[in-house]
Amino acid sequence: MNQTTESNGVLSEMAHNTGDLAKSVGKFSLAMTLLAAKQVTAIVSRPKETPAMADDVTKAAKGHLSGAVRTAFAIGTNVQSGIVDAAFDIAGMRPKGQAPSGDTKALSIPLATGIPRRVAGVKTVASGAVDRGVTQAELVQRLTDYQNESTGRPVQRAKAVTGLWKSEGLSTSVGKHLLPENTLADPKLPREVLGIAHVGFGSGSTEEMVFDVAKLNALFEARCAHDFIGFAYEGIGAILRIYERGFFKLMSGALGLIRLDAPDGPDPTDLFADYLRQYPAEMQWLIMHGYGRLVAFSNMNIYKAIEEITAYPSERVEPAVRGAAFAFVMMNSDDLPKVLEESAIPFERPVQVAFQNGLINSLVFFDWYLPGLLEDWRPEGSLESELIDHARREAAAARTRGYPLPMRLENPRT
Predict the structure, then answer these.
(1) Longest dimension (CA), the chain
(2) How far apart are CA 13 and CA 7, in angstroms?
């Protein structure tokens, strides 16, 4: 099978998946989808016309992008990442971060695998979300059911991801359609679900309150479980990225993740400096972790995501890289042994360590949600074994403490 035929096959499958997503979400803009599909198909089937199309993309980008970080990729439509990269380079818009210093093949996910995984992620989150208020009894029951559906020995990572994403979707709905009775401090909620529930609640509340710092602080104080409140602040960062003006925001609206007429987020100057300084330093760190998660999700290539992140102000790099690693695990749980073994990414040591700490934290988060995941793990590679042992120590500390640290490690790698 030649490359063009294979690419067209991927596009056909992507179009089918996108059609299913449209039915489940109910807000997909068919006109935008068909236009994107037409342009992408033309790029794949008529590569000689690529320069002209790149010019068109560049012109469009100039009218829609702002801020220090411009998003070049969008779920389901970013199939020719090199072309979009080129357009952004021509326009002088791409952030100039630290380029990888070696081979970037180890953690590259093939196009035919990466696109369906992203679409599946969106569909799974959407399957847990509802466009209405959720009674407290329903919230407790659904979150408990999602977690129970994921259990079983040996623990299956794919099931864990499904449960986590559904729980995030439902909790986002609670934040958007808050009822007086809703609280995450409910003792009926299993503690295993509280981390992901707070992440989703933080994201949905941020949308509903349009980034209002005072309102968010008051809401989280009133409705969150004290030991898990940091996870709600992490959810702010995901929405900060999604609402940032650019292609990703446009496509998120088309996919029904946000309203098509959603307002712009906070001023992106200097990576949202004015907005972030309204929060304590610890919460700024968590917000940037959430932001980094969506940087990974909106880039088809983890190396490109990290290259973008290394262009950020120095104090923002570590949490964003760790967030990107966290999301990379969620999207590629089937490949986790390989991801761990190949985690010495070709960037400077502080970035490499931040990436590995993000991987460890994701494993701790997994194991908190589904106890036994790390106990059942049988690592084979030497670096995989080292990181799994580290994650086991951190998970044991979380059990003793009674809660996981919000996106942090008690003893991170140095």
Answers:
(1) 62
(2) 10
On whether the CB atoms of residues 263 and 210 are closer than 8 A, the answer is yes
3-class SS of residue 346: coil
Interatomic CA distance for residues 274 and 267, integer angstroms: 7
**The two three-digit tokens of residue 289, written as one number:** 């972790």
Tell whether the torsion through CA atoms of 241, 217, 164 and 29 is positive or negative: negative
pLDDT digits (tens, 9 = 90+) for 306-363: 999 999 999 999 999 999 999 999 999 989 999 999 999 999 999 999 999 999 999 9
Side-chain half-sphere CA neighbours of 402 within 13 A: 3
Would you give the DSSP letter of residue 258? S
pTM of the model: 0.80
Can you state the percent helix, strand and coil of the chain, rounding each to 5? 65, 0, 35
pLDDT digits (tens, 9 = 90+) for 90-128: 334 455 788 899 889 999 888 778 777 877 777 788 788
For residues 209-225, b (16+ Cβ closer than 10 Å) or e, as one string? bebeeeebbebbeebbb
Count Cβ atoms within 10 A of the Cβ of residue 5 and give its class: 0-12 exposed, 13-18 middle, 19 or more buried.
exposed
Residue ranges of the alpha helices (H) in 46-182?
Answer: 50-64, 81-91, 111-128, 136-149, 157-176
What are the tokens at 405? 């640290």
Amino acid (1-letter code) at residue 69: V
Compute, in degrees rounded to 10, the torsion defined by CA atoms 362, 364, 366, 369: -140
* Token pair listed for 330: 């969620």
Instruction: Note whether 341 and 107 are within 8 A (CB).
Output: no
How far apart CA 360 and CA 366 sit, in angstroms, is 10
Give the pLDDT score at 256.
65
What is the distance between the alpha carbons of residues 202 and 237, in angstroms, rounded to a whole number? 9
